[in-house]
Design a protein that fits this description.
This protein is an alpha/beta fold. The chain is 49% helix and 20% strand. It is built from 6 helices and 5 strands; from the N terminus they run E-H-E-H-H-E-H-H-E-H-E.
Length: 121
Amino acid sequence: MSFNQVSEVTDRHLHILWTNGDPVTAEHMVMMYATNSLLNDWWDKVTVILWGTPQKLVLENAAVRFEMDNARDVGVEFSACLSCARNLGTTEGLEQMGVEVIRWGQKLTELMQSGRHVLTV
């Protein structure tokens, strides 16, 4: 089957599991794809999951926070791994930014085991 022959996706919620702490990757992949996915109707809903190093990156890097705010303005949702946040000391800062901080281990496992769309960066 070619790219042009792909049939309509039934589940149109994309979860982006963001584990890479590189600011260039944050701007030119995570935020760019998440934002354009909603602006171009590629997905109906996009949730970015901050897992590990990206939690510190968004708290320490103003440019990444700016891109995150732009993504949020078009409807991208952000959530963070609670265990990572506790270990990294980022819980309070993330919550002040309006990022949901929850237990993601079991939820992520269920997403993948049920065949949902998870993009890992």
